[in-house]
Every structure is written in structure tokens, then in C-alpha cells.
Amino acid sequence: MSDVRERIQYLRKILEQYNLEYYRDNKPSVPDSEYDRLMNELKALEESHPELDDPNSVTHRVGGAISEGFTKIVHERNMLSLGNVYNYEEIKQFDQRIVNEVGPVEYVVEMKIDGLAMRMLFQGGRFIQAVTRGDGVVGEDVSMNVRTIRSIPMNVDFEGELDIRGEVYMPRDQFRHLNAQREANGEEPFANPRNAAAGSIRQLDSSIAASRGLEAFWYHLPNAQSYVSTHEEALELLEGLGFRVNPQRRLCHDADEIWQFIQEIAAQRDSLPYDIDGMVIKVNDLAKQQVLGFTAKYPKWATAYKFPAEEVVTEVKDIFCTVGRTGRVTPNARFRPVEIAQTMVEYATLHNCDYIINKDIRVSDSVVVHKAGDIIPEVVRVIPERRKADSVPYVFPDTCPVCGMPLHRFEGEADYYCLNSECPARVVESIAHYASRDAMNIEGLGEKKVEMLHQAGLLNRIEDIYNLKYYPEEVMSLEKMGRKSFDNLVEAIEASKENGLDKVLFGLGIKHIGAKAARVLAENFPNIDQLMEATMEQISAIPDFGDVMADSVVQFFADQQNIEFINALKKAGVSLLYKARANFASIFTGKTVVLTGGLDSMTRSQAEETLTQLQAKVTGSVSRSTDIVIFGHDAGSKYDKALKLGIQLMDEDSFTSELERLGILKK
């Protein structure tokens, strides 16, 4: 058996080396026939000795079905985004701010690959996990699909934990080839390489991901200061370990040198084998990076230069208005479809009446359009010399385009509003907002479903959500609403009742009150009755709350219809108390905790919420920084890893007993 094991290990190692030579270095050292011969030998040995299987073996890089959806993973270190600069002057300002804080510095200027941000984790030199950026705090485990990217080594010469960041992308040639295949098969082509990469990396059949020819560049080592003193040395370290690092980068010493390199790359941009949407500028010295630190969203030691948005000319075919949940009426333009930054654009918001007047946008006008920030379509200007002789200015409607009621413009505001609370558009938008992820998070109750239920007469007010369970036959008679969908919807609705006051307040859609303001309100007035009785002075005394926000809250609760609505929520059993973080210490306070396996006493999300209230940091993967692993039935590799690392293990009974001792869980 030892001879077989050694042969298998040798074949895996040599075949991975051949993979990297072929896919990463473009310098194959053996003919395809030799590669195939060794691969077939390895497959035969693994099939006859399944006990020696290894998920990182090269034989698994062709992919296969993923048994479940993608697991949500909390990043141990948040994956922050970058601030942006758009011209030479802003680069000078960035450089001057850095110099003022830490003195003259050297910068590394790199390509900003237009792909999918990714984090990879290695333990003891072995690939463990790949996680998408997600929202920067929580991503998705896409290890099975990233494993199919053959330029990525699965084993590296590195002890301990290696956490690296990079970008998965689709090369332009591969994108063109893929779209040609899709069109030949009668499938809709991908809009651009970035969308193609994102769609490929989220395939539930990783053999599809394997066929898509994805690539990756790696550009960041979060704890690099443990090994090297500069960012450039960190990139060289990653290169030395076998990771693809983009060679087109330059060390620069001031804004002039940075701008010169940007201009050089801009001239080459269209001929590159991959898409870039800008350049990234980073302070090279890691110690100075530490001094500069971070804001809540961005590192202060780095920024991204964004290339100017592509501008195209098209024709305004129509101007129409939509109505949001607050009654705000938004004008929109419909264009002759035109391609901008590799996607087809047909619509853009025109914001408000004044925007249309100031730019003098008319139906049938030729207009210059771009994507603001390379994302949002926007009208830059009208081309008046192309205007038709019979053109007339656009007249903003004075009645709601949905319900026909008169529109109102508040003093000092640019927007018009439909004040009819029964307006179908307002009803649908307000209910969909209440059910949205950042509010009550009622899965299965998106805008289209809400509109369908409203048209059926089942959802006319937010509180009607909690009565849907009494109408199973009516709900199940609707399109795509069978028994399972109905049961899942009712379960999600019932679970939402325990979300707490801050989620309800955000869901109410009070003017000027976003998610953060809703939480701050709930912290200061932890039950709904206290808040309804609060005065203008009491609310405006809250830090960062001004008179406008305070007046909006007071006016909302002065409306008798809203009082009746709150009473209806109480009657439905919706919790209107704030679930504050525990203000007492526990064994979880300040600890990093991982949950694994199934729990019988509560759902996984309930356990995570409880631990968060106890001021624990809940993460999705086990590492040496993990303090406690709480496990239920069918605990798997996370349990084994915790055991191997000597991390404290706590079974479900011990966990619930501790919660009972703290008074959080009733016996």
C-alpha cells in the first residue's frame, strides 16, 4: 500500500506541476500524450484505492455536481472596497494627503482587473477554501469551482495559514469563444467578461465552471507584514509560491509618475487579453500602510483610478414616470438600445423635473450617454444641433401616472409626490420594501410576487402579509405558487416576527430613516410605545439626528392610520422590541466562534444572532484564531479541524445550558 500511496502522491505532484507550466506559465515541458498517460494512470489508481482520495487531486479539477447551494461564509478579515479617483488632480490630492501623514512614499501601481474578487485560504500548504467577496463581510464558498482553475496551485510550500486575495476573470478570447458557442446553441450570450466570470463561478455543476476557461490574478496578502516589509515583496512572495501575479505593475514615487504609467496603460487597454476598468495605487511600505490605517469602508493607503466612462450617442424614444413606496415620482428615459461598456443600455433615470429642465431633455432628442462609475446609465448632455424642428419641451405630469391623483411638490424639494396611500404602485413598493432583506427579510416575497398578490386582492397593506397563511387555496392558485412555495413563504413570514424593532422601523419606510438611523432610534427608544410618545426635542437630541429626521418620525406617528397599522402588527405578533446586544459578559464575549453541524434547539441564523448579541464574532471557517467551535449533529470537517488544532469544542447541550444560565433561553 505504501508503494501505491507514494506513486499517487508523485503523480499528483508532477501533474500539478505540468498544469501550472501549461496554464500559468504557458511553457509546457511535456507533450499532451505524456500528460494524458500519467493522468490516466492516476485516475486508475485513485479509483482502485478510494481510501486515498484527496479533494485537491488534479483529477478533481474537471469538476462535478455540487450537492448543495453555496454556503455563506463570514470573512475573518473584511474584504474592503477602494476609494476612487478620476483624474490627475485627484491623484495629486491623494498623494499629498499620504505625504502629509507619513512623508514621501513609494507606490505600487497595478491593473484593476474587471472580474470577481476572491479570497483563498491555504492551511499547511494545502488549498482549503475559496470565498467570493460578497458584501465584504459575508461571501459564498465556491471552492469546488475555483479548484477547476488550473493555473491555481492546490499545494504550496508554506507553513501555517495563508490567506490571499485576488480577482477571478474570463480572458477576452475565451469570452468570445463562449458567446459564439452559446449563440450557436440558441442561448443568450453573456453581456461582458465580468458577468461571464461571475456566472461561471456560481455554477452548481463545477464541470461547467471547468469548461469556461477562467483565470485569476492574485494581488494582496492581508498579513504580509509577518513575512515582508513592502507590498512589492508580498507580490514577489506570492509569485514565488506559484500564484499568478500580474507583471504589468510599476513602482512610482509621485503623482506625475503614477499619471505617466496610467496614460501608458490606457493606450494599451483595448489590446490587453483581459478587461480592466482602472488602476490601483497602493503605498508600498507596509509599516506606513499600518500608520495610515482604514476608514469604515476603505484603506487609506490605497485608491483606484477609474478610467473615464465610455460615451455613446443614442436617441430618446420616450420619457415616462414611475412611483416609489414613498410616493416619489421618478422620470425615466427609454433610449434606442445602445451598447456601453459591453452591456446593452435602454433606460436611464432622469432623477426629477429640474434635471430634465436643466439639461433640456426631450423625446426624440439625440443625447450623449455614459455609465456613471461604469455602472449606472446617465444622460451626459443633449446634442441640440440634431434636434428636430417640431421638438417641444417635456412637460412633467401633474397627476400620478398610476392612480391619477394630483401630484404634490413640497417646498424646498426637487421631487414630486403622489400622496395617495392607496396608489397601487406605492402599495406594492412599500410592501416589497418591508419584506426586503435589510428590513424584515421575508424570503419569497420579492416585488414581482408582491405585485401578483396585490393584483389578486391578497396584499393591500403591509399587515396583510401576516394574514396570507389564512388563504392557502387563493395563494396556491397563483402562478408558481404550489404547496411547497406557500409553506416556505408562511414559514419565512412567521420567522420575521422575531426580527426586532430596528428591522420593523426600517421596513416602515419612514422618510429620511434608513437602516442605520432605524437601529439608532431603536437603541434610544427600545420599544415602539416609547418611540411613538417621543417628542421632537427628544429625537433630535440623538447624536447625528437633525430636525428634519426627527420631524419625519414625529409626523409619521402623528398619523392615525400609522397608529392603526402599528396596532395591527402588535395583534399579528410582530416583536416591536429592540433586541439589543447583551450588556453583560459571557464566555462568548469578544471570542471568535464557529458553528458547525445541525442544531435541534434553534436555527443556525438564530444561533448566530444570539452569539452576536453576546458580542461574539461568528465566522464561517476554523483557523488558529478561532476560540470556540459549537457543534451539533452531523458535524464534519470543521469539527475535525478544531480537534486537530486544539480549539475548545462545545456541543449543543452545553451551548443551550450556557444560554439558559444567562437567561437568554428558557428552560
Question: Care to give the gist of this entry?
Answer:
By secondary structure, the chain is of the alpha+beta class. The strands form five sheets. Strands 12, 13, 14, 15, 16, 17 and 18 form a seven-stranded antiparallel β-sheet that branches. Helix 3 runs antiparallel to helix 9, helix 12 packs across helix 13 and helix 16 (501-508) packs across helix 17 (515-524).
Walk me through this protein's architecture:
A hairpin with a 3-residue loop joins strand 15 (366-372) and strand 16 (376-382). The chain starts with a helix and ends in a 6-residue tail after the last helix. Strands 12, 13, 14, 15, 16, 17 and 18 form a 7-stranded antiparallel beta sheet that branches. A 5-stranded mixed beta sheet has the order 2-11-10-3-9. Strands 5-4-7-8 form a 4-stranded antiparallel beta sheet. Helix 12 crosses helix 13 and helix 16 (501-508) crosses helix 17. The protein is α+β, with helices and mostly antiparallel strands and 667 residues long.
